[in-house]
Amino acid sequence: MKYLHGFIKTKYNGFICLSVFGLLLSGCDGSFFSSDVRKVTIAMDTPDLLEKPWFSVTYRSHKCQRTRRDGDFKKHYEDDSSVTTYEPEREKNTNIYSVTVPVEKGWYCDWKLSNVEFKLKYKKGSKILEGIDKTISKRITFVFDEHYPRATNGRSEFRPGKTQVINEVFYPFKTENHLVGNYIDLSFTGRVYFYSYRFGSNIELVLFRPIIHTDKIVTLIDPFTLKHGQEVKLVYPDGYVEFGNAFPSFERLQKIRREHQVAVN
């Protein structure tokens, strides 16, 4: 297996060394890929507190159709799909996990790459999970055709070019649940709810880089009862309290972090 080494510069940590793998795949659907088939490499630069990603890769076929019935039992035809989950390889001396897949699988159904999904998930045993009963993952979706996966709510941010390095900032989001059970969960909050990106037909490499500020946890506290006047409460990392809103302000979290950095410096 041959490796092509490239260097991508980001404003966060200098140069990241990426190995673009040449992947030779074959499957039970009769598809075989030679080295000259166009491919795309999907990768995540994985912080130590996260589990390595598993990439769910979906192909679709305009040629092969499947039927479904609506509430009135009427038949509808839609593109057939094929989904495979890949365990990525770790790049040497990095925290980058990647998989390289063909853009077109061909054969009778003329399968073409549609989307790739993976999740941000806290790693078991991480210090941040002390006192946490449940963790909630964050789904990331890459779209390569005109289909809109349901998980994206029909929204995708277009990213043109052959190579994309996507840096996204997240904050740990802790919820103290009281109304339905008494437990504490930990999830992620960031600039948007749905993280979905659409790429052009010439895309070759996508690197997703989550930047998680573990020292800036925002907490949502449920009321203990539904009595009149009881409201949810948001507690920000600087101690600011907001009542009646269950969705943290990304702008406020960014402001808190920047002000803290200035004070430290």
Q: Which structural category fits the helices and strands?
A: mainly beta
List SSEs in N-to-C order.
EEEEEEEEEEEEEEEEEEEH
Rounded radius of gyration (Å) = 22 Å
User: Kindly, what is the distance between the CA atoms of the first and last residues, rounded to a whole number of angstroms?
Assistant: 47 Å
| Assembly category | single chain
Number of strands: 19
Q: Spans of 5+ residues with little confidence (pLDDT < 50)?
A: 1-33
Q: What is the helix fraction of residues, given as a range?
A: under 10%
Percent of residues in β-strands:
over 45%
Could you tell me the mean pLDDT? Answer: 84
| Biggest β-sheet description | 10 strands, mixed
Shape: globular
Counted by DSSP, the helix tally is 1
What does this protein structure show overall?
Strands 3, 6, 7, 10, 13, 14, 16, 17, 18 and 19 form a 10-stranded mixed sheet that branches. Strands 4, 5, 8, 9, 11, 12 and 15 form a 7-stranded mixed sheet that branches. It contains 1 helix and 19 strands. Helices cover 6% and strands 49% of the residues. The model is unreliable at 1-33 (pLDDT under 50). The radius of gyration is 22 Å and the shape is globular. The chain has one helix at 250-264, and strands at residues 3-10, 14-21, 39-45, 55-69, 75-86, 89-90, 96-102, 104-106, 111-120, 134-135, 138-143, 157-159, 163-177, 183-190, 195-199, 205-212, 218-221, 233-235, 241-243.
